[in-house]
TrEMBL record:
EC class name: transferase
Stretches assigned to the O-acyltransferase WSD1-like N-terminal domain: 7-267
E.C. number: 2.3.1.20
Gene3D superfamilies: Chloramphenicol acetyltransferase-like domain
Protein name in UniProt: diacylglycerol O-acyltransferase
Length: 477
């Protein structure tokens, strides 16, 4: 009898909601510096070696069986060939713009469900003797945190180390690790299920009560109300066309601001993003004078839980009322995130997941009925932050310079921003529906400019009073 791994409700949701215009795979873009004196065909040789590694481990050797769409499961592919998943491409000009255009096109097509749903593309020809790797996998297989951990293990902290197997052939794959907990008895399972259901019901009732109190105006900012966002170009149905760009912030400067303002990295990053998105909407001629709202995936995975599948919740929160003062923006975002943190900490993980399924299910219904642009959206965009390796990593002596997430668009959303911290940088991967959100590279530039402005305001003796006055005067003139 075949070994079956059944998908959770959340994992299956990514399959059910997938369409041609809205693929549900996520990816990573890694940019490497070739080793000194590397041969001209270094990247092609590496891709050819990887394409011969047919000894794949789960989840990369698992194929979907969805004959019963209500109870799909993974089963091992008995005809796995790495060459069906590994590709080699070469750029003509080698610019970042050409690379991002290629990544946008690669990310548009749905993954083939007749084989294990992932691909790995080597891209040679970048300027400054660099190359890139784009690796994508279906969101029903794993969340971004798990995938990053698995990919990280195929890289080395030693520049001299060579010969490590590719990520799909790692024998000590974290996806397959066994739990350190003792196997529960039948009675323990029954008690655990009853206790879990009771905690979920309590958590959902608590969240529902908070939502009612907030909607009635009896509390303020105790919880963010979904489906109250102003309609904007950021929301609505999408086509299959995508555009991709990146941004990066230096973590040493981010952490310095974090410490002196007594905030978190998320506070700083969202302050920059909030200002940048407003500037971007102004740039494309569709200003938004309302407060931006975001949906944030939060990890619900326990420390000793097996890596794999999706253990996330999706919560919405407001950012800051529109302002040109980044310090006020930072303060307002801090208040909003504190409420979100309290909501997550005080609710069982299962109830957060159940709440996420309900709200995103309603958003999906609006999108499927093609009324997403007529009703208030769940939020304006999806923003997530994935912690990554703190030290430099190497692949066959090539140094990994940047690791940028390439995520998926949620129902009713036309923009996704995912952050990934790696080796002293906070890398932003930005994906959008290009038919509605043009000039996406401008948003990446605005993120860095907003960071510089926040830095100037916080570090100046008068908290930016003169700087902001001069800025407002130049805008008026």
């Amino acid at each position: 009898m075949e070994n079956r791994r059944y998908l959770s409700v959340l994992d299956n949701g990514f399959l059910i909601t997938e369409t041609k215009n809205s693929p549900k795979h996520i990816a990573g873009l890694q940019i490497y510096q070739k080793p000194i004196n590397a041969p001209k065909n270094f990247v092609k040789n590496l891709s050819e070696r990887w394409s011969k590694e047919d000894d794949a481990c789960a989840p990369y050797n698992l194929k979907l069986n969805a004959q019963n769409p209500l109870s799909p499961y993974w089963t091992e592919c008995d005809s796995f060939k790495a060459s069906n998943h590994v590709e080699f491409l070469s750029l003509k000009k080698g610019s970042r713009g050409e690379l991002y255009t290629l990544i946008s096109e690669l990310h548009e097509a749905n993954l083939d469900r007749s084989k294990p749903m992932w691909r790995c593309v080597f891209v040679d020809g970048l300027t400054k003797d660099r190359f890139a790797i784009y690796f994508s996998f279906h969101h029903s297989v794993s969340d971004g945190v798990s995938a990053g951990k698995i990919m990280e293990r195929s890289l080395s902290t030693d520049a001299a180390e060579t010969g490590r197997p590719p990520f799909w052939a790692m024998k000590d794959n974290l996806y397959n690790k066994k739990s350190s907990r003792p196997k529960p008895t039948l009675m323990n399972k029954l008690i655990g299920a009853a206790t879990g259901n009771a905690k979920t019901a309590y958590g959902l009732s608590r969240i529902s009560t908070q939502l009612c109190l907030e909607a009635m105006g009896l509390t303020k900012n105790a919880i963010s109300l979904p489906f109250t966002s102003a309609i904007s170009p950021l929301t609505g149905s999408v086509t299959s066309k995508r555009s991709f760009t990146t941004a990066s912030l230096p973590l040493d400067r981010v952490n310095h601001l974090r410490k002196i303002t007594r905030n978190t990295l998320n506070h700083i990053a969202l302050t920059c993003l909030d200002g940048a998105i407003h500037r971007y909407l102004d740039h494309i001629g569709n200003p938004l004078n309302a407060t931006l709202t975001i949906t944030m995936p939060v990890s619900l995975r326990k420390e000793d839980a097996k890596v794999g599948g999706n253990q996330i919740g999706l919560v919405t929160t407001k950012l800051s009322p529109k302002t040109d003062d980044p310090f006020i923006r930072l303060r307002e975002i801090g208040v909003s995130l504190q409420a979100v943190r309290h909501q997550i900490d005080e609710s069982p993980a299962a109830s957060i997941q159940a709440y996420s399924l309900v709200t995103n299910g309603l958003s999906q219904l609006a999108d499927t009925a093609n009324v997403a642009g007529l009703v208030p959206p769940l939020s304006h965009t999806i923003v997530s932050n994935v912690p990554g390796p703190k030290n430099a990593l190497y692949l066959e002596g090539a140094e990994l310079l940047g690791w940028y997430p390439v995520s998926t668009l949620g129902p009713g959303h036309r923009l996704n921003v995912t952050m990934f911290s790696y080796n002293g940088k906070l890398d932003f991967g930005i994906i959008a529906a290009s038919d509605f959100l043009p000039d996406l590279n401008v948003l990446g530039r605005f993120i860095y400019e907003e960071f510089e402005e926040l830095e100037k305001v916080v570090m100046s003796p008068d908290m930016g009073t003169e700087f902001l006055a001069a800025k407002r005067l130049s805008v008026k003139s």
